[in-house]
Design goal:
alpha/beta; four-stranded parallel beta sheet; 12 helices; 47% helix; globular
Amino acid sequence: MKYLYYPGCSLESTAREYDLATRAIMHALGVELIEIPDWTCCGATAAKAVDRRLALAMPAVSLALAETVESGADILVPCSACYLNLKQVHQIAATDARTLAEINELLAEESLHYSGKARPRHILDILSTDIGSTGILQQITHSLSGLRVAPYYGCQCLRPYRIFDDPEAPTSMDALLGAAGADLHPWSMAARCCGASHMTTNADVSKELVFRILKSASGADAIATVCPMCQMNLEGYQGWISSRYGEDVRIPVYYLPQLLGLAMGIPAGDLGLDAKSARAAAPSAQ
């Protein structure tokens, strides 16, 4: 298998371990990743608040660059926010010729054009649909048996585009973790919002959301996620939240490829787990 690869900004900074783990497990699975040359920021959530055209043009640049490598390629996108922004432009290309023309008018200034053929796909889609639990099972050398994991999907890989899973009752991550030998923690918070970027604009509400998710994970040994924003919100404020609510809700929050990689026998350092240990030793976010 071969995919173009769009890491996004978070995976080159605060979520560097997500990038390491993604590359490591894909290599172990025999999947070739070709990073899109000169990819740029997708705009995250900030661009939408600044300018509508900018918010569409930023992800469109990387999609157009992908088509210069292979016009009809699938693009593996680990970050849920990046996936959502790229998927929006891909959807526009299929349904809104007028807006696509507007986007391509902007891209023309960089001698680029997006036809809609390059298709962004979330890493969870590719792992669950193309590789599947059987493909994962074939690579397992160190079963996660005895490790109770709460699979956390968050919002953006499932909504609003119902592509590969049920946004209200997702199960795609469950089968992959099960193939790795993990025990699944039964809960109803798998697709609840963690507050996302509102953690910086309405921290009180966001921390309440995170508290409810962490409290519901009680009894699990770890949470698995596929979103850098979710990982940061769920893990970075645990000390403050435990103190604020008078209840210890601390629990490790890993990226799904890190847990799958451990089950495949990939060294912890290659999965970015050394970076996670260093962060754990630092003071908790306030």
